[in-house]
Amino acid sequence: MKKKLSLTFPRRLVSEPITYKLIKNYNLIVNIIKAKITPYEEGRLDLEIIGEKNAINEGIKYLTDLGVSVKPLIQEIKWNPDRCNHCTVCVPLCPVSAFEVDRKERTVSFNDEKCIACGVCVQACPYRAIEIVF
Ligand code: SF4
Ligand code: SF4
Question: Cα–Cα 20 to 30 A to 134, which of 45, 72, 74, 126?
């Protein structure tokens, strides 16, 4: 199975080889999505981990026992209507039809409740009206 996690760890753990231990001790594949680690400050690490369910759960237990805060990573998609020029490029690309076209008004609107945060539209929008927020 696969899980995306957001880790926040205190200053004392900034130099701890967390990803190395997840790989070596729990046989997990670890992809770093985003890292913000500064010496002597709190660290933030967003990861995707892949492995057996039990191994993932044990890896998460290792992190929490260590004092790391582990939360599911939620990628939020923000649509900026002020930047949108209603070009409709994003509409056919969205796998869950989160963009709706009002043909009469010739406008596009975004339904964030449908969005599964796949990110396809973010790359495609020529006006940078869509962004991913972690
Ligand atoms: S691609 Fe961008 S500018 Fe075009 S309709 Fe979609 S959000 Fe608006
Ligand atoms: S991120 Fe993916 S699911 Fe969400 S609106 Fe864009 S294309 Fe659709």
Answer: 126
